[in-house]
Design brief:
This protein has 13 helices and eight strands. It is of the alpha+beta class and about 325 residues long. The chain has one domain. Strand 4 and strand 5 form a beta hairpin.
Length: about 325
């Protein structure tokens, strides 16, 4: 396909077999669309089946046969997931928070991360039914190969996503092991399986970028062409600042992802979700298409920010506009 995505054949109609498995409750209601008060998120997808009303749909997705290259990538990621984490050993190594923060970020990059950030855990990020006792989240971002991503939703693109989730998992597990080897408890959490805590709000809080209309983060260097992982820990750290550079305002006027979305799941306006007004992707429209294609990613593939070299130019252009 020469690195190019095939256009959608026409309006998308979900598979009736899938629709028959949809629960009576809307996924948008589960996610808290229209709710004015802050609350913890409810488990909805990629969680243990007993925790979500979408268990039947999730099982249908996981049972579907997929391209051999996707299966191979999944097996490789599973082997990474099964690798043991280094044991917690003592005594704790003591150092000032600024020293720990610098060393943690340097170690993460040494292990293969392109983005590193630190933020304090917030209760409203922890899923209902879960508890997180750690104080800090060390956020990890790993870049995707744009030429592979640009073929979304082809198997080539799905393999790239699975591969980078595996790479993020590896970085997180080894970073957690490094911390545990110095006496500080640390727990890795990696996508795409949902765990105890949301990753996107934490990544926004620690400076990875701004939330885009497509529901993913736009970074000032990588655009949306990256995946997330994290390490939860109590090692003494210092939180990073959020990074606003104009991507949110850009999304207000950009229609690329919303026009390219086959199930028409991307809204032109922000919505109220659990007390915050933000960009939100319609769960009930997005997930059936995602399931049938064994993954999607069209929205981040077509995002202007994701093309190599474009993000930096856009940041500079927006900065010049603000000065005039």
């Amino acid at each position: 396909m020469n690195g190019k995505r095939k256009p959608a054949a026409g309006p998308y109609t979900p598979d009736p077999e899938q629709l028959a498995l949809m629960p009576e409750v809307s996924g948008n209601a589960v996610n808290g669309v229209g709710e004015g008060r802050k609350r913890r998120p409810t488990p909805i997808y990629h969680h243990d089946p007993e925790r979500t009303p979408f268990a039947a749909l999730q099982t249908w997705f996981r049972a579907r046969p997929s391209h051999p290259s996707i299966e191979a990538a999944r097996l490789k990621r599973t082997s990474i997931m099964e690798e043991p984490i280094a044991p917690l050993t003592g005594p704790r190594r003591n150092a000032p928070p600024e020293v720990w923060s610098g060393e943690v970020k340097a170690k993460g990059r040494e292990l293969g991360a392109q983005l590193m950030g630190i933020t304090r855990v917030r209760p409203e990020w922890v899923f209902e039914g879960y508890e997180v006792s750690h104080t800090w989240m060390i956020m990890i971002g790993v870049a995707m190969d744009y030429e592979n991503l640009a073929t979304a939703p082809s198997p080539r693109s799905v393999v790239e996503v699975v591969t980078q989730y595996g790479r993020g998992t590896q970085v997180a597990k080894r970073l957690a092991g490094w911390l545990r080897g110095q006496g500080w408890d640390a727990f890795p959490h990696c996508g795409p399986d949902a765990g105890p805590i949301l990753l996107v709000p934490a990544a926004l809080e620690c400076g990875f970028g701004e939330l885009g209309k497509h529901g993913s983060i736009i970074n000032r260097d990588l655009g949306s062409s990256f995946r997330l992982a994290c390490v939860l820990t109590d090692a003494p750290l210092i939180a990073d600042d959020a990074d606003a550079f104009g991507a949110d305002g850009f999304c207000v006027n950009c229609l690329v992802c919303s026009q390219e979305c086959p199930p028409d799941a991307i809204s032109a306006q922000k919505q109220l979700v659990r007390g915050d007004t933000k960009w939100y992707v319609d769960f009930d429209k997005c997930v059936p298409y995602f399931n049938e294609k064994t993954g999607c990613g069209i929205c981040i593939a077509v995002c202007p920010w994701s093309r190599p070299g474009v993000a930096t130019n856009l940041v500079n252009k927006l900065a010049r506009r603000r000065r005039t």
